Amino acid sequence: xxxxxxxxxxxxxxxxxxxxxxxxxxxxxxxxxxxxxxxxxxxxxxxxxxxxxxxxxxxxxxxxxxxxxxxxxxxxxxxxxxxxxxxxxxxxxx
Amino acid sequence: xxxxxxxxxxxxxxxxxxxxxxxxxxxxxxxxxxxxxxxxxxxxxxxxxxxxxxxxxxxxxxxxxxxxxxxxxxxxxxxxxxxxxxxxxxxxxxxxxxxxxxxxxxxxxxxxxxxxxxxxxxxxxxxxxxxxxxxxxxxxxxxxxxxxxxxxxxxxxxxxxxxxxxxxxxxxxxxxxxxxxxxxxxxxxxxxxxxxxxxxxxxxxxxxxxxxxxxxxxxxxxxxxxxxxxxxxxxxxxxxxxxxxxxxxxxxxxxxxxxxxxxxxxxxxxxxxxxxxxxxxxxxxxxxxxxxxxxxxxxxxxxxxxxxxxxxxxxxxxxxxxxxxxxxxxxxxxxxxxxxxxxxxxxxxxxxxxxxxxxxxxxxxxxxx
Amino acid sequence: xxxxxxxxxxxxxxxxxxxxxxxxxxxxxxxxxxxxxxxxxxxxxxxxxxxxxxxxxxxxxxxxxxxxxxxxxxxxxxxxxxxxxxxxxxxxxxxxxxxxxxxxxxxxxxxxxxxxxxxxxxxxxxxxxxxxxxxxxxxxxxxxxxxxxxxxxxxxxxxxxxxxxxxxxxxxxxxxxxxxxxxxxxxxxxxxxxxxxxxxxxxxxxxxxxxxxxxxxxxxxxxxxxxxxxxxxxxxxxxxxxxxxxxxxxxxxxxxxxxxxxxxxxxxxxxxxxxxxxxxxxxxxxxxxxxxxxxxxxxxxxxxxxxxxxxxxxxxxxxxxxxxxxxxxxxxxxxxxxxxxxxxxxxxxxxx
Lengths: 94, 369, 352
Known about the structure:
CATH architecture of the largest domain in chain B: 3-Layer(aba) Sandwich
CATH class of the largest domain in chain A: Mainly Beta
Strand content of chain B: 15-25%
Structural class of chain B: alpha/beta
Number of strands of chain B: 11
Shape of chain A: rod-shaped
Largest sheet of chain A: 5 strands, antiparallel
Order of helices and strands of chain A: EEEEEHH
Radius of gyration of chain A: 23 Å
Radius of gyration of chain B: 21 Å
Number of helices of chain A: 2
Oligomer: heterotrimer
Strand order of the largest sheet of chain B: 4-3-5-6-11-10
């Protein structure tokens, strides 16, 4: 039910009174229906399912999510590294 | 591709896997609702890398699997009509009805065509005024707006030769039905991300509260699925039961209002039978009165359809997570992907087909060692 | 998609009677048939053997093992970005011969024409076949034409059969894969299938993806020059890399393990697959090969491939193993594993 692919809006226009647009999917350009994202701007990203944009893709949110992933487990890594360092310095001859 | 590749990063996946391993203390049974999530899990080999304590039950979120047998048989009858161009998404072509599937109808001379978008079917209706063009309108809430627009446009353009065979299903009633079942084992849900893009997730809040079950809106790329699982397990370990959004780049609490507006204009809620599960009240969408002329079920009065589900098929129990596919007596014997008895063996993300791939010859442990 | 034949390129001016389309008479064996042969097929295929115009053509071959192959071509649409049914008809059979290590020599060509097919379309296909035969270094030495009534044929079907010779010492067969062997692909996968998909009704893209149809025999010759220890060659046509490797795994009763991240895929093809929910590993190719090579010779073969225009993006994608015999297993992008099963029937676009 859920194959939704992100694409970048290249242009928008009306066809049979419906808002349509050309969307760029990593080099593949396809005509899709933008009726459900009426405020979408050229250059923004949207998620397309069966030829329809179902939502705008919030790029800032995407970057924040990725940043969160990069931090996952980071605190533990730092603690582990600190432990290793402490253990190493204990074994140094003084 | 931008906004896909970043969410498939193997290093970040490892971080999430490690984190999930670190926080999982007890056994938990999670259900991922959407077939697209099941597909991603199998495709990327995710579930074998999760801790053993996490059990993923594949949910009924596969419109292919749950489209009622009567509707498939009706589709087959309509497609066999000499003057009909029958349009469908690719997913439905191999689903067995009581005797055949759309592929066999095609081989017998039926004009069956695969389309990418429902608007392609509307275009065909415009270009073939002497033919009846019927579109197989299946799907969950994600697909309903597209199907609604097709009917809307057909009405606008006066395309009287266009009609839709509607079989839409809704997720929240299905989740309720699962939770209300006395044999239910599901302790948390990964809600379907793109369904929620359309409908929002406010509908799940009363369910989470009533059944004390965490519901986390989850995306489809590997990192999204892992993040959904991570947040779900965190809630379970802490005894919380809330609705959380782990797919914020594509989902907002209120959903897509323009889409919901059209949906309300074109469809109304009604009863829907789910293949393998049975009737779930208020779980389906039907065309509203003013669009009835575009309802293929009414247009093509199909008589005398004898629907006959295979008595050997247990897909209903599989869909509800009550049995595992390999616990079905027909699994791998009378029922295989080549000769499927039920939809869960046909669909790419049907639980039975997935199991058949995995468990048939070897356990994946022996491969990964 | 209309393709006009450029008559200025024709060897012989075209005094075909004024029939713009194929009619039943063209298959009748009389004057109309003779005209087709004389003014369409002969100029395009251009060789002395064909010009003998006997019921059969006599050829001589060196004293080596012979390889025979046949294939029928029913592709629709007839013309697609990067080629047409004519290219496939020649290269398909040339490649099947090359996959046994054979040097392809002669082809036959049988045509089933649907009444109403435009002669300019036919002329264009036949002209391309002639060019393809030249590029592959083979001769089309005999043929046949039949016409079927309108509605009974999809425009044009072509069958080609081929004859080739296998040099001494070359032993290539799917059973020969051994544990420890390396799996090499000659270039990007999925181009042809997605090129077809891109023009099929309802699945149109604005961007052009081109079919990779090409003759592989020269590439194979270069590989054999680098090593005589090539165990298996296969061109992954219908069903893609997945089907071919599954077949090899079954024939050899070995397992094959590949790393998905090593599969070369054109960005446009990758994107098109994403949009349609398809997996490039199952998509057809018409100008690529898979080679299974003894490990110690892998580098030499790979190097020879990369020197050749059709192998520039050749890559090692996996290995043959003792475990999971008969199965193809892939390491996924995130470090998981999945079994890559044979598809039941054609891969279809999905929405789920």
